[in-house]
Design goal:
Helix content is 42%, strand content 18%. It contains 13 helices and 13 strands. α4 packs antiparallel against α12 (304-329) and α5 runs parallel beside α11 (273-283). It is elongated, with a radius of gyration of 36 Å.
C-alpha cells in the first residue's frame, strides 16, 4: 500500500506564491533603460521564443520542481502486509560483582588458575549469547551499581560489555542492595511473568544505600524473581587456604539464600568451574513466557525518485538558460557548417 509518512508537508505548496505576494519586488539599483552591444542583443534574440510564452508556462518547470521536492519531503513509501514477530521470552538482567575481591585467583579454568571475574566472563558470556528471544541487560556493581547495558535483544553487545568489565570499575566494595534496587527499577515496567535477575557475587553487602533484604522485599512486591550465585572456593581449599587467607569467608550465604527465597528464585553455590557450568545449564532451563504478540509492516522508502527527478529537471533548466550563451562563445570555425 502506498502512503506518505508526513502528508502535512503538502500544506507548504502555496508558500512560494505567498512569498511573492508578501515580499517587495527586488530593486537591482540599475537604470531601467540599458543599452547593450551587438553580441548581447544577439543573445537576447535567442531567448525571444521563451520570452513570448505566457507567464504561467514560464513558471511551470519551477512549480514542478517545487512539487517534486514536497513529494520527497513527505516521505512516500510502499508498505507491505503486516508480518508477525516473535516476541516471547524473558526480561533478564545479569548483575555481576566487580569489587576488589573478585580478583582472587582461586578458580580453575582449563587447568589454569583464573580470577573469579574471569571465570564468570568465560561461562556467562556464552549464557547471554544463547538467550535467544530474551531481552538481556547487564548491571555491574561494586561500591555502587551501574546499568552497563539496558534490556535489549542485542545479546552480542551485552556479551561484549561483560567481556570488557574490569575489577574496581564500580568501586572496591560490594553494594548488593543497590544492585537489586537498580534491577527492580528497570524491570518493574516489564510484563510481570518475565522479570528475572541473576545476581553473581562473592561477598557480603559492604556499601550502598539499600539493605539487601529490604531490596529483596521490593523485588518480591514488583514480582521480580532473583537467582543468586555465590562464587568462590572454600576458605580452606587451595594455596590461599594454606597461607591463611580466607577470601571465601566474606560470602554472606544466609542473605543470598533469603534474597532468592523471598522472591521465588533459588540460591546456587559455585566453588569451581564445574559447579558454575552446572548452574549456567540450570538457568538455561528457564522457559520463555509468552508476551503480547507484535506485528511489523515492511516499508520501502520511495523519496529518492521524486528527489532525483527534481535534480534532473533543475539541471535541464540550467542547461537551457546557458545554452544560448555557449552558442555565442563558440569560435567561428566551430559554428561553420561543412
Amino acid at each position: 500500500m502506498f502512503e506518505f509518512t508526513w502528508p502535512w508537508v503538502f500544506l507548504l505548496a502555496p508558500l512560494p506564491w505567498l512569498l511573492r505576494q508578501v515580499l517587495p519586488i527586488a530593486d537591482s539599483g540599475e537604470a531601467a533603460l540599458k543599452v547593450s552591444f551587438l553580441p548581447e542583443l544577439e543573445a537576447l534574440a535567442g531567448r525571444r521564443a521563451r520570452a513570448n510564452l505566457p507567464a504561467w508556462r514560464q513558471q511551470l518547470p519551477f512549480a514542478a520542481i517545487w512539487l517534486l521536492l514536497l513529494l520527497a519531503a513527505a516521505r512516500p513509501e510502499w508498505v507491505g502486509e503486516p508480518l508477525p514477530l516473535q516476541a516471547s521470552g524473558r526480561d533478564l538482567l545479569v548483575a555481576v560483582d566487580v569489587s576488589g575481591s573478585m580478583e582472587h585467583p582461586d578458580m580453575q579454568w582449563q587447568g589454569q588458575d583464573v580470577s573469579r571475574l574471569t571465570l564468570v566472563k568465560r561461562l556467562f558470556s556464552d549464557f547471554i549469547e544463547q538467550r535467544r528471544g530474551d531481552r538481556v541487560g547487564l548491571i555491574l556493581f561494586g561500591s555502587q551499581a551501574y546499568l552497563q547495558a539496558p534490556l535489549t535483544f542485542d545479546r552480542h553487545t551485552v556479551r561484549t560489555w561483560l567481556d570488557e568489565a574490569v575489577i574496581g570499575i564500580a568501586g572496591k566494595n560490594t553494594a548488593v542492595g543497590d544492585a537489586i534496587g537498580l534491577a527492580v527499577k528497570r524491570l518493574r515496567l516489564r510484563p510481570a511473568d518475565s522479570r528475572v535477575l541473576i545476581l553473581i557475587t562473592d561477598g557480603a553487602n559492604t556499601a550502598g544505600q539499600i539493605d539487601p533484604l529490604t531490596a529483596a522485599r521490593l523485588a518480591a512486591d514488583a514480582q521480580v524473581k532473583i537467582y543468586t550465585i555465590g562464587i568462590g572456593a572454600d576458605p580452606d581449599a587451595g594455596v590461599l587456604g594454606m597461607l591463611g587467607l580466607t577470601p571465601g569467608l566474606d560470602l554472606d550465604e544466609p542473605s543470598l539464600k533469603a534474597i532468592a527465597s523471598s522472591t521465588g528464585g533459588q540460591y546456587f553455590r559455585a566453588r569451581d568451574a564445574e559447579e558454575l557450568q552446572a548452574i549456567r545449564e540450570a538457568l538455561d532451563q528457564l522457559e520463555p513466557v509468552a508476551q503480547q504478540p507484535t506485528q511489523a509492516r515492511p516499508a520501502q522508502a520511495l523519496y529518492c525518485w521524486p528527489l532525483a527527478l527534481a535534480l534532473l529537471l533543475s539541471l535541464a533548466l540550467v542547461g537551457h538558460e546557458l545554452w544560448p550563451d555557449l552558442q555565442q562563445q563558440r569560435p567561428n570555425w566551430l559554428r561553420r557548417r561543412p
